[in-house]
Structures are given as structure tokens and as C-alpha cells.
């Protein structure tokens, strides 16, 4: 997502970030079915029309890749070289996962729910479908949904047509696309995407910690205009504003600070209302008297749980969860 798209409360579909692990599957919605099975009283086989006939929920969600910011980690790691643009906010519309589990009747002893997509590939020398699991308790009590629409239109192929999982507040790898099967399990799922991928590790042979809720982050719309080759920003001197968005999956955003001198001094920005609800980003703005010269603009967010963005990128083997403050070099001309 180009960072100038932060100006929109809801990201236009074509600007929302994408990461596709394997190929985009070719799905005929007329033949497609969703299976709900495993440790349930009433297994279900549902068409897209069946799902559309059920009570509808719509949730605005800011979704971010767990590798966002990876390109700024030193030493570099081998993976998708995201800068800071792997994010977007959309209105997802569909069926609440909790209501579908209630309809199927989760049996006693259920521990996890496995979500399986139709996309297949080879990873870690294992042929596999992309699939991940979540604990039953979190799904029963949470706001996860099975989405068949985004921003008022049917899911496009790249966003998981005809159905995808959306888990508000969690990094994007959790929201399995091209969903085909939901299985309730009585033990933890040990597939590749759970035991190996998306875990914070510092050594290859350590188990690491699983990645879950989105860490707090704030991003600004790059001010002024870009120099073509370097993309460095050029700003006119005088009174102006720095504006952006902030979000966190762990707790609500309670503040954003801005620095115009590379992080040596900070001042509070004005935080906008949570107009889209708990699971979407909030706007902020900061008045700046730009004086001629070279400046480094920074912004950092903090949430109600006391989490705050670090000044420097944390390192791990996958380059995950790098939520260090954004730094934008600016030349002010007068």
C-alpha cells in the first residue's frame, strides 16, 4: 500500500497489501463448498448461498503482514523484503465464526479449530495446503469472521474468493484465504505453518514464540513531494501538518508522539476518534513549523496495554514484528 493511501479511512481494494504464499487457486463458486467437521455435533457442508443466508456481520479491520518492516532489519533476512507498506484497512462482510461453531455444536474436549485453504505448495520440503489453527475459546469469544465481501463487493481472487477467514487484531498470516475446510480438533495442530513459520526465533533450531496480535505501529503520510530517484521528501518551509494512522492488535491506541529531530525530542500528536471501531486504525495529526534545512521525522504509537514502538528494529531470524518507529528524511526549502 503506498503510504499516501493512509489518507483514506478505508483502503481502496487495489491499494490494500497482498501476500500470496502459493498460487491463487481457480475456484468455481457454483461447485465450491465449505466443510465444517471434526469434533462437532452437527457437521456442515455449506455453499456460498448457504453462508449468505445466515446472519451478516461487517467488521472494519486493519490487517498487517507480520513481516512488515523486514527490509529495515540488520542483518537482512531472506524473505519478502517489505519496507513499511504491508498494511491496509478494509470492511470485511460475512458470517461470524462464533455463530457457525455454535450451529455445528462444538463437543467437549475441543481445543483448536483448523482452517484450511485451497492454495497448495511446497515449503520446508513439505507439500501442503496453507492452513493454520486457532484456539476454540478465542474464536467463541472473539470477532473473527468468514468473509465473502470486502468494501461492499465480492472478494476478488487475490483476496481469497469465494471465502476467507479474517481475524481482527492478529497479523495477516492468520486470516487464511480460499477457505475450504474448518475442522475442530482435540489437540494442537502441528502443521508446517504452525510449528515452523511465523515464529520469533533467534536460532534455527529453537522452537521460538508464535506470532499473534499486531504490535503497535504508527505511520505518517510522507509530507511534501518526492525526489524521483531517492524518494527523499522535499517540503516547503512554514506552518504545516504531519498526518498519519496508528493501530495495535493488543489494545486500543491511546497516544502518538512525533519527533522532527530524529527521535531526540518528542511531542504529542492529536489523536482522532476511533470512527471505524476497535479493530481499525485511528488517524492523528501534528502541527509543524518547518524551518529550512535537513530534518528526520519520526512517529511512535502506544496502546492501552503499555506497549510502545521501539526506536530501533528488533532482530529475529524471520525479520518478524519489526515495529520500530518510522523515519522520514525531509529537506525543507524556503
Give the domain tally: 2
Sequence of secondary-structure elements: EEHEEHEEHEEEEHEEEEEEEEEEEE
Spatial order of the strands forming the largest sheet = 14-15-22-21-17-18
CATH architecture of the largest domain: Alpha-Beta Complex
Number of helical elements: 4
What fold name goes in the CATH topology slot of the largest domain? Answer: Sulfite Oxidase, Chain A, domain 2
How would you name the oligomeric state of the polypeptide chains in this document?
single chain
What gross morphology would you assign?
globular
The profile of the biggest β sheet is: 6 strands, mixed
Notes on the structure:
The chain has 334 residues and is mainly beta. It folds into 2 domains: 3-210, Oxidoreductase, molybdopterin-binding domain (Sulfite Oxidase, Chain A, domain 2); 217-333, Immunoglobulin-like (Sandwich). It has 4 helices and 22 strands. The protein has helices spanning 48-52, 97-104, 136-141, 192-195; strands at residues 34-38, 44-46, 57-64, 87-96, 112-123, 126-135, 145-150, 153-154, 164-166, 179-185, 199-200, 209-210, 217-220, 225-226, 233-236, 238-247, 253-259, 267-268, 270-271, 282-290, 293-303, 326-333. The strands form 5 sheets. A 6-stranded mixed beta sheet has the order 14-15-22-21-17-18, with no helix packed on it. Strands 2-1-10-5-6 form a 5-stranded mixed beta sheet. β5 and β6 (126-135) form a beta hairpin. The longest helix has 8 residues, at 97-104. The chain starts with 33 loop residues before the first strand and ends with a strand. The mean pLDDT is 96.
Amino acid at each position: 500500500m503506498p503510504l499516501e493511501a493512509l489518507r483514506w479511512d478505508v483502503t481502496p481494494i487495489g491499494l490494500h497489501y497482498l501476500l500470496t504464499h502459493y498460487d491463487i487457486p481457480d475456484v468455481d463458486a457454483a461447485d465450491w463448498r465449505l466443510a465444517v467437521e471434526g469434533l462437532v455435533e452437527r457437521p456442515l457442508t455449506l455453499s456460498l448461498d448457504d453462508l449468505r443466508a445466515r446472519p451478516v456481520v461487517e467488521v472494519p479491520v486493519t490487517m498487517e503482514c507480520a513481516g512488515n518492516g523486514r527490509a529495515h532489519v540488520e542483518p537482512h533476512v531472506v524473505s519478502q523484503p517489505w519496507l513499511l507498506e504491508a498494511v491496509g484497512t478494509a470492511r470485511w462482510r460475512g458470517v461470524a465464526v462464533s455463530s457457525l461453531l455454535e450451529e455445528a455444536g462444538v463437543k467437549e474436549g475441543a481445543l483448536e479449530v483448523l482452517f484450511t485453504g485451497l492454495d497448495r505448495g511446497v515449503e520446508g520440503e513439505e507439500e501442503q495446503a496453507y492452513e493454520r489453527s486457532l484456539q476454540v475459546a478465542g474464536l467463541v469469544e472473539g470477532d473473527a469472521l468468514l468473509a465473502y465481501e470486502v468494501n461492499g463487493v465480492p472478494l476478488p481472487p487475490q483476496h481469497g474468493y469465494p471465502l476467507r477467514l479474517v481475524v481482527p487484531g492478529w497479523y495477516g498470516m492468520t486470516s487464511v484465504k480460499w477457505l475450504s475446510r474448518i475442522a475442530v480438533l482435540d489437540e494442537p495442530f502441528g502443521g508446517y505453518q504452525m510449528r515452523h513459520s511465523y515464529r520469533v526465533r533467534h536460532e534455527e533450531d529453537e522452537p521460538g514464540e508464535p506470532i499473534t496480535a499486531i504490535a503497535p505501529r504508527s505511520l505518517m503520510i510522507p509530507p511534501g513531494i518526492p525526489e524521483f530517484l531517492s524518494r527523499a521528501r522535499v517540503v516547503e518551509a512554514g506552518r504545516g501538518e504531519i498526518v498519519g494512522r496508528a493501530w495495535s492488535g493488543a489494545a486500543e491506541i491511546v497516544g502518538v508522539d512525533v519527533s522532527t529531530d530524529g527521535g531526540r525530542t518528542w511531542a504529542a500528536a492529536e489523536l482522532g476518534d476511533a470512527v471505524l471501531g476497535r479493530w481499525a486504525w485511528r488517524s492523528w495529526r501534528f502541527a509543524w513549523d518547518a524551518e529550512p534545512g535537513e530534518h528526520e521525522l519520526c512517529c511512535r504509537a502506544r496502546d492501552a496495554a503499555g506497549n510502545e514502538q521501539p526506536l530501533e528494529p528488533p532482530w529475529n531470524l524471520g525479520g518478524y514484528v519489526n515495529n520500530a518507529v518510522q523515519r522520514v528524511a525531509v529537506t525543507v526549502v524556503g
